[in-house]
Amino acid sequence: MKEQIEEIKKKALQKIQEVKDSKELNDLRVNVLGKKGELTQVLRGMGSLAPEERPKIGDLVNKVKSQIEMQIEKAEKEFAKRELEAKLEKEKIDITLPSEKVKRGSKHPVNRMIEKIEDLFVSMGYDVVSGPELETDEYCFERLNLPKGHPARDMQDSFYITEEHLLRTQTSSVQARTLMKYKDNPQPIRIIVPGKTYRKEDDATHSHQFCQCEGLVIDKKENHVSLADLKGTLEIFVKEVIGDNLDLRFRPSYFPFTEPSYEVDVTCFKCLGKGCSLCKQTGWIEILGAGIVHPNVLKMNGYDPDVWGGFAFGPGLERLTMFRYGIPDMRYLYTNDIRFLKQFDRKED
Ligand code: PHE
Asked: Could you confirm whether domain 109-344 is CATH 3.30.43.10?
């Protein structure tokens, strides 16, 4: 029996040297030391031995067992080490490779335009204010000298939500809101109001939602906020935000909240005045409405028209954006084609 045990030991130790991976090693462990393993089988045969032989054999088996176990453990550690090394080698990161570029969105051209206008007017002492897009009929029309049933209401086809509420058709509503805010303590006002507006229109050149930027300047009459000031302001505005090679043209027009009223055109950016399809061969493109604030508007919103006066203007921002960046079709601004927007990635102005 002793020889048998020695033989098992010899064979097992030799096999441990030959084993190629941890799976084979585990099989070996089961075959030799497991419940049905070779060494266990030997122990089972102990019954047939003389009683004085049993402890000796038992002792030997235990020794052999722990020897084999030790060797298996050693081999196991070696395999684990090798496997780890292989893994590290395989998963090595090449830190010299250029990293993948982080994809970032870019500012929308209309938002760039808004920031540009804000910077300009803030530098001239204006405040930037906002008002609700869901507006009341009162602020959108009535307090702007447009009572219910007034024919000029047809100029702006509106989205009514209830009898009294609508999506504002013009940022002019914030003129009335600002005047009313100070009605108990009238004071000079110099504000711009960039924001979204809505009208029931959808043809090739109009969108149901667009942006405007209202401007309102009110001061004591003795300080003469005149038509000349409006013109000068708009000239600076156009030259700064669109380009200084463009001319301005004031055309008499009608708005219920200004008197006199004007529509202001600039030289067509595409043909520079020669006439093209964009400007319908006129050489001019309309960009805003403006005028001297109507006395009724002042009166209705708590400012005495004998003491106070001023001007207001309201450009549409999509047109200005098209001018500034040379965008030939307004729809590019709304389809959000990534290839279009990407062109503005690096333009910081
Ligand atoms: N609110 C007018 C429009 O939407 C523009 C405007 C603003 C006209 C301020 C005069 C003064 O057409």
From this structure: no
